[in-house]
Amino acid sequence: MPETHPTPGVIKLAIVGAGRLGNALATALRAEVTHGRRARSLDLIGPLGHGSSAAGCTAALLCVPDREIAAAAALIDPEVIVGHCSGATGLEPLSGHEAFSLHPLMTITAGGAEFAGATAAVAASTERALALASEIAGQLGMTIVNVKPEDRTAYHAAASIASNFLVTLEAAAERLAQTAGVSRQMLVPLVRATVDNWAALGPQQALSGPVARGDEATVQRQRDAIRLRAPELIELFDALTSATRELAVRR
Fold this sequence. Notes:
Layout lengths: L9 E7 L3 H16 L5 E8 L10 E4 L6 H6 L6 E4 L14 E7 L13 E6 L2 H13 L3 E4 L5 H11 L1 H15 L5 H18 L1 H4 L3 H4 L2 H14 L4 H17 L1
Parallel strand pairs: 1-2, 1-3, 3-4, 4-5, 6-7
Antiparallel strand pairs: 5-6
Helix pairs in contact: 9-10
């Protein structure tokens, strides 16, 4: 399909979707432009509603649920480059458009997110669309990684384990700690130090505790306590103990 050409030096970007991600990206991009931290100018529109055509824009970045990407893309003006922010989805839902994807490897809450220093996984149907995705990531202060289509689901699963499952794990720890009068805030320094050690040293060297030491008597006492106080966590504890033993052996 023919490629359109934006005004030289300017990206007129429409953010489509006013959920957590759309608002976080719009806020971060406007902050970069307002404070002049990035060299290239950006004309940001939105966040707009899902039915927007983004007519007259250089590009539209869809910040909508995966299941809504194709429908939202179908409404975008055919002259507009279209991107989505899904980590697990390829470019197929954007067919008919010059297309790209830009998935921030970052957790986003209702309070927003800090994108600078994080990674963005990108892909594109043309070199120009890839350059545009890279430009947007650069405006946010992000580094980019190209993830192949066949690797996207594994990439996204890794992100889910690293972020979503970590929250689930800490929720389990918090629930058990409460039975001993220990609050979430008391666990926070331990969690932060553990993540810092993993980042700096890798998993084998960061691993500590009774499983790593081979102290099976203590592990059994822990299991007994969980069985009495939070039996719903026994299956999770057993699975994590097994996985931790395997990691300890690889040390």
